[in-house]
Amino acid sequence: MELETAPIDKNVEAVRRLLWQRMGAGYAKYGITTERTDIDMLGWLQHLQEELLDAAVYAERLKDELRTSASKAPRDAI
Asked: 30 near 24, Cβ under 8 Å?
């Protein structure tokens, strides 16, 4: 399917909007884009690893919340 004929995917559009917002917020905060050249490849990998570790913590927190709410639900509701 050609991009020009593909239907609009609301989830892709939501992510696109978030990316634009993050780009604007990042530029407002740091005054530079990710095209900067003062960080080497290891530095970028360090940034990525830290972000992914944060995401893993968020996922674990949400899993714990689901487990807790599931254990409190009446058996016939599960």
From this structure: no
- Please give the backbone phi and psi of residue 7, each rounded to the nearest 5 degrees, phi first: -70, 155
Q: Residue 4 pLDDT > 80, yes or no? A: no
Q: What is the 3-state secondary structure (H, E, C) of 49-70?
A: HHHHHHHHHHHHHHHHHHHHHH
Q: How far apart are alpha carbons 6 and 1 in whole angstroms?
A: 6
Instruction: Give the integer Cα–Cα distance in Å for 47 and 10.
Output: 29
Is the pTM higher than 0.90? The answer reads no
Greatest alpha-carbon pair distance for the chain in Å reads 58
Residue 65: both structure tokens together: 């919340």
Distances (CA, A) of 29 to 33, 50, 51: 10, 19, 17
